Amino acid sequence: MSEATLAISTVPPPPQLETGQRILIIDDEAAIRESLETLLSLEGYAVEMATTGEEGLGRIEHNTYDLVLLDLALPGKNGLEILQLIRETEPALPVIMITAYGKVDNIVEAMRMGAQNFVQKPWDNEKLLADIRSSIGRYHAEEENLQLKRALKQRYNFSNIVGKSEAMLHIFDLVAQVAPTRSTVLIQGESGTGKELIAKALHANSGRKDKPFVPVNTGAMPTDLLESTLFGHVKGAFTSAVSGKKGLFEVANYGTLFLDEIGTMGMETQAKILRVLQDRRFMQLGGTQEIQVDVRIIAATNVDLKQAVREGKFREDLYYRLNVIAIDLPPLRSRREDIPLLAAHFLRHYAHENNLADRTLAPDALRALVDYDWPGNVRELENVIERGVVLSSSPVIGSDLLPGHLTGRNYSTSLLEHNPNASLFDILEDFERRIIMEKLERCNWNQTEAAEHFRIPLSTLNQKIKRLNIEIKKRVKE
Ligand SMILES: Nc1ncnc2c1ncn2[C@@H]1O[C@H](COP(=O)(O)OP(=O)(O)OP(=O)(O)O)[C@@H](O)[C@H]1O
Ligand SMILES: [Mg+2]
C-alpha cells in the first residue's frame, strides 16, 4: 500500500482536465514550442506543433483545431501572410500571435487581419491561458450558434411549413424567434400563401401551445354578429339573447386568437379591438363588468393594410398596434425554388391520405409547375397535386394530368393544329374563349369576380361570354 502511494507520487501529476481541445503551435524556435507545449499539455489541451507556416497551413487543412498560436517572425512566409491564408479557409478559427517585445506595427496589422489576440515574449503563463480559454469559449459559442442556424435551415420544414427559398428560411427564423413571446404578429400575404399555417406555427411553438388556438374570420361577418362573437353577450343584451354567451376573447384565454381577414373589418369593431389590444380588457355586449384576459393576438390579411390606412378604411393606430412584428409571405411565383419541395410534400401527403403508393412527377410536369405563375399560390399548387395524385394510375404523374392552363396545352396552338388555315381572328377568338373559361373555372364560375380579375366591367365580360358561346357552369359549393 505504502509502496503504491510512493510510486504514484513520483509520476508527474495528470492534467487537471482533459479538455479534448486541440491547439496548434506554429513557431520555428524549438525552445518556445517546447515551453508552450508543456504549459498547454498540463492544462489538458492536445497540442500539435509545426515549425513553418506552410507546415501549419497543411495541418489546418487536414485537421480541426480549436485555436492556433502563430509566431509572427517565421522563415518563409511570415506570420501575417500565414494569418491571411488561415482566414481564407477558417475565417472564425481563433489565432493568437506570438511576437517579440515591442513590434507594435505588426501587432496592429495582425489584429486588423483578425488575430484574436497576441502574446509578447516573454509571456505571462496565467494571462496566456486565460486568453486561450476565452478565445476558444467565444469561438465555440459562435460555432454553436451557426450550427443551430444551419440545422434549422437544413430542415427546410418547420412545423409543416415547407420552403428553402431565402425568404422562407428567413420566415422560419422569425417564427422561431417570436413564437415564444406574447408580441402581436401581423401576417400579410396574397391568398393561399400560408398565413393561417404560420399563425398555427406561432401558436404551436409558444408556451400557449396546450391552450386554445381560436381562429375567427373577421372579414366574413356583419359587425353586430362579429362583436358578439368576439366579446360575447349577457342574457337579454338583444332580443334573441335568451342566454349569455362567452366571446372568443374569453374562449382563447391563455391561448392565441387568430383574427383572419382583418383588412375588411368594420371601423366600429376596429375601435373595440384596439382597446382590447391596449389593456386586454373588454366588456360583453350588454355587460357592465370588464373582463380581463391573457390572449395573444395574431392577425392576417391579404389586403395591403397600409393602403387601407391611406384610404381611411383602416385605423392607423390599430395598424401600428397589430404590426408589432410583421411577417410578409411572398407570393409563390417570387420563390419558385420552393415549388419542387412543396410539390414533393403534397405528393407524399395525398398519396398517403389516399392509401396510394408514392407518386413522383415526370420532368415535364415539374417543369410546368415551376414555370406557372400560381395566382392562387400554395393552395392552388396543393389542389393541382391532389388532383394529379388521385387521377394518376401510374406512379409517375405526367403533364397530361395537370390542368391545361398550366401546360399551355389549351392555348392558341390547338386551333391551328386542327385547322392550319384558321384566320388570325379565329385563333385570337379561340384563345380568348379559353382564357375566359379558365378564369371562370378558377373563380368558381363567379362572373363578377372574373370580371374584377380581368379588370373589365361585368357587362363587357357578359358580352364576350355570349359572343364566344361560353356555357356558364353551375358554381360548386366550397
Ligand atoms: N409553406 C408551406 N408549406 C406547406 N404547406 C403550405 C405552405 N404554405 C401554404 N400551405 C398550405 O396551403 C394551403 C393554404 O394555406 P393557408 O390557408 O395557410 O393560406 P392563407 O394565406 O391563409 O390563404 P387565404 O388568404 O386564402 O386564407 C393550406 O393547406 C396550407 O397547409
Ligand atoms: Mg387564411
What can you see in these coordinates?
The chain has 478 residues and is an alpha/beta fold. The protein folds into 4 domains: 146 residues, Rossmann fold (3-Layer(aba) Sandwich), CATH 3.40.50.2300; 169 residues, Rossmann fold (3-Layer(aba) Sandwich), CATH 3.40.50.300; 75 residues, Helicase, Ruva Protein, domain 3; 55 residues, Arc Repressor Mutant, subunit A (Orthogonal Bundle). The protein has 21 helices and 18 strands. A 5-stranded parallel beta sheet has the order 2-1-3-4-5, sandwiched between helices. Helix 5 links the parallel strand 4 and strand 5. Helix 3 runs parallel beside helix 4, helix 11 packs across helix 13 and helix 20 crosses helix 21. The N and C termini lie far apart (88 Å). The N terminus is likely disordered. It binds adenosine-5'-triphosphate and magnesium ion. The site of magnesium ion has 3 residues, from helix 8. The site of adenosine-5'-triphosphate has 17 residues, from strand 7, helix 8, helix 14 and helix 16.
Strand order across the largest sheet: 2-1-3-4-5
The set of bound ligands, ions and cofactors reads: adenosine-5'-triphosphate, magnesium ion
Mass-distribution shape:
extended
Overall pLDDT, averaged? 85
| Secondary-structure-derived class | alpha/beta
Helical residue percent band: 40-55%
The tally of domains stands at: 4
Distance, first to last CA: 88 Å
Largest sheet: 5 strands, parallel
CATH superfamily name of the largest domain? P-loop containing nucleotide triphosphate hydrolases
**Number of distinct beta strands:** 18
CATH topology of the largest domain: Rossmann fold
Number of helices: 21
Strand content: 5-15%
